[in-house]
Design goal:
The complex is a heterodimer of chains A (171) and B (103). Chain A has 171 residues and is mostly helical. Chain A contains 7 helices and no strands. In chain A, 71% of the residues lie in helices and 0% in strands. In chain B, helix 1 runs antiparallel to helix 2 and helix 2 packs antiparallel against helix 3. The chains are: A mainly alpha (171), B mainly alpha (103).
């Protein structure tokens, strides 16, 4: 599991960094997709097969839409003329590195509680085998987490209305 | 072992968040800024998944991933709507050209 997380994590981070260094925006889009797929495969490895698959499907479609928008609007979608479109690169790097340092320090310094059940059963890797996570998620969304589900539905509806209202021509 | 995997996964998540932060802050193109924000949410998804795996499969963690996926869809839809409205108004696709509200 360590090898899976480390290898795919490295892939996700490297492709994520390349997103902002390649000239071609279309290439950047597919690198972002690769980063998402790497994270989704880690999720599937964790046992979240349903959510990992949802991430892969959703991101594939989303990146296709992004490519369409780039070809439609952007001045240099194919990266044929090398150009950098960044501002305040040094300040951005500084903020990003400080954020990474703080988060990583938190990750490695905070003592995470070791689950007693796994330790007592001698399980050294992986969580306890519980009910099917997809069933549990569906039960929660249609039961105890119904308020979350309703809020998400309302937010999506508001997004549809708002996006159309913003994007529609006023002439 | 479980704890080590959790820490590695969270470190990767932190790296993704920081990379996305750099992109969102430094890029001029609106679509590239949206890519940076997506990368931040990508890191959050990985973090939630790692906590789900290491923390005894709490259903709240998978609900959090559903919320994050919705956040991503909303961000994408409204981002494109704003980009389209801005382009329609004045053929602009860079944030530096849309600074009327800058102080």
């Amino acid at each position: 599991m360590i090898a899976l997380v480390a290898a795919l994590g490295a892939v996700a981070v490297i492709t994520g960094l390349l997103v902002f260094t390649v000239d071609s925006m279309a290439r950047a889009t597919f690198l972002l997709l690769a980063s998402f797929v790497a994270v989704a495969v880690v999720l599937i490895g964790f046992g979240l097969g349903y959510l990992g698959t949802v991430v892969i499907l959703m991101m594939t479609i989303e990146m296709m839409i992004m490519v369409v928008f780039m070809v439609m609007l952007m001045m240099n979608p194919a990266g044929l003329m090398p150009m950098t479109m960044v501002h305040n690169r040094r300040g951005s790097w500084a903020i990003a590195l400080v954020a990474f340092g703080l988060l990583t320090a938190g990750v490695w310094l905070v003592p995470f509680p070791v689950r007693a059940s796994a330790a007592s059963r001698g399980v050294t890797s992986g969580p306890a085998v519980g009910p099917d996570p997809t069933v549990a998620l569906g039960d929660a969304l249609m039961g105890g987490q119904m308020l979350t589900m309703m809020t998400l539905g309302l937010a999506l509806l508001a997004t549809i209305v708002g996006a159309v209202a913003v994007a529609v021509s006023r002439r | 072992m479980t704890e080590l995997v959790l820490r590695i996964a969270l470190t990767v998540a932190a790296a993704l968040v920081a990379t996305g932060l750099y992109g969102a802050l430094s890029q001029q193109s609106i679509v590239m800024i949206m890519m940076g924000l997506e990368l931040v949410v990508n890191g959050l998804i990985l973090g939630a998944g790692a906590f789900w795996w290491a923390g005894g499969q709490p259903v709240a963690a998978s609900v959090l991933i559903v919320v994050l996926l919705t956040v991503m869809a909303v961000e994408m839809a409204l981002g494109f709507a704003v980009a389209l409205a801005l382009y329609r108004a004045r053929q602009v696709d860079l944030t530096d050209d849309a600074g009327e509200l800058a102080g």
